[in-house]
């Protein structure tokens, strides 16, 4: 039973690869039939669990309620999407976001549920580090706006360089991953090589210090909650 449940959970989650917009698109009829089959299996597993569990215990368990709600939402969304598709009305499958509920809330997924609970308990404790990181990012973005915004610089594509504050925040956020390095600093570097010091300081503070600190806090708190949970 556990193997069958895991197989259909994996199959249900894999549908995102084949549904529009898809990596390997399949006809809507094929994906919808597979999804209906998965939901029927989930409903059968839930019905079987209800028969071997006391009624008041079954209905007090929020995991069972979540699975039932997810099945109803998925079927409703599938029906609405199918009708709209018949009339050539563009729409999206919003119920995809509820599919991980099946992975977490079945009785067979106890270990996954424990890991998910540890992650949930860790989130409040890393909020302070995240807020400090965001404060640093916003302050560096403000400095970049003051340093480069009035220089009338342009990117290689001929676009204004560091003129919009939100655009600067996004570019520097990407720079934390070094994905746009050194391209993001080249217009300023071409204007004056001393401006490279700004980007070096930004990378040292936010990439090397804050990201290391963030990772350490996440790891230590997750390990602490996992130890408490497993005793």
Automatic annotation (TrEMBL):
A GO term from the CC aspect: membrane
Lyase listed as a keyword: no
Signal peptide: 1-16
UniProt organism field: Charadrius vociferus (Killdeer)
InterPro entries: Ion_trans_dom
Localization of this protein: Membrane
Occurrences of domain Ion transport (ranges): 4-224
Entry's transmembrane regions: 26-44, 65-84, 126-149, 161-182, 194-219
SUPFAM superfamilies linked to this entry: Voltage-gated potassium channels
One Pfam family hit: Ion_trans
Superkingdom field: Eukaryota
Record's bilayer topology term: Multi-pass membrane protein
GO terms, molecular function: monoatomic ion channel activity
Keywords: Membrane, Signal, Transmembrane, Transmembrane helix
Name the record gives this protein: Two pore calcium channel protein 2
KW Signal (keyword) present: yes
């Amino acid at each position: 039973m556990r193997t069958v449940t895991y197989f259909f959970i994996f199959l249900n989650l894999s549908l995102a690869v084949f549904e529009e917009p898809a990596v390997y698109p399949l006809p809507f009829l094929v994906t919808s039939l597979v999804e209906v089959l998965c939901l029927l299996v989930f409903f059968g597993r839930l019905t079987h669990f209800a028969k071997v569990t006391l009624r008041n215990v079954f209905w007090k368990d929020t995991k069972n309620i979540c699975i039932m709600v997810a099945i109803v939402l998925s079927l409703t969304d599938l029906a609405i999407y199918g009708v709209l598709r018949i009339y050539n009305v563009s729409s999206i499958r919003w119920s995809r976001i509820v599919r991980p509920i099946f992975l977490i809330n079945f009785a067979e997924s106890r270990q996954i549920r424990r890991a998910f609970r540890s992650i949930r308990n860790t989130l409040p404790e890393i909020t302070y580090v995240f807020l400090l990181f965001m404060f640093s990012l916003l302050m560096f973005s403000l400095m970049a706006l003051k340093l480069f915004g009035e220089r009338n610089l342009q990117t290689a594509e001929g676009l204004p360089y560091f003129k919009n504050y939100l655009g600067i925040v996004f570019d520097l956020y990407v720079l934390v991953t070094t994905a746009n390095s050194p391209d993001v600093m080249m217009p300023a570097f071409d204007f004056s090589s001393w401006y490279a010091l700004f980007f070096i300081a930004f990378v040292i503070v936010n990439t090397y210090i804050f990201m290391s600190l963030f990772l350490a806090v996440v790891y230590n708190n997750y390990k602490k909650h996992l130890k408490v949970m497993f005793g």
